[in-house]
What we know:
Elements: E1 4-9, E2 21-26, H1 33-44, H2 46-59, H3 70-96, H4 108-117, H5 131-141, H6 155-173
Antiparallel strand pairs: 1-2
Helix pairs in contact: 2-3, 2-6, 3-6, 5-6
Amino acid sequence: MTLTVIHADERGSPKNRKKxxxxxxxxxxxxxxxxxxxxxxxxxxxxxxxxxxKILKSGCRAEDSQLRTAQRxxxxxxxxxxxxxxxxxxxxxxxxxxxxxxxxxxxxxEIQLLDRLVKDKNPASTQRxxxxxxxxxxxxxxxxxxxxxxxxPGNLIMWRGLSRFIxxxxxxxx
Length: 174
């Protein structure tokens, strides 16, 4: 087997952490610097794939299903993939675009239900209610405390909160 070693060092000296240094082995063709950068970009996305699978495995508990046919299992995993993607997407949006409009992710009915269900910590505030504001409300349904110094909610908290919210929304609809 022919392998190529790609050795990449982070430029500059970051504060409060070690400099990133990757040594990757690949059997894919690397003929130029551009090819090497492409492979590094692919590898940098690996953690997102692993987080998605963690949501699928830990949140949805896909492995625990008791389905007996391949067709039923395929259908279940298809639905779980959509749910897992939504949770991952919402978590990442909360970090990358917290000031976006909540309508980007939630319907007007979901926003109204969240306003009635999870009271604002500072009701006197006249601030525009952002995407982050509503995603934190969902996270609070999953056990997130939303203290001033808490990091943004993670995928599993979002899973728990969204799962509970969907149950409540379904009940409200019925």
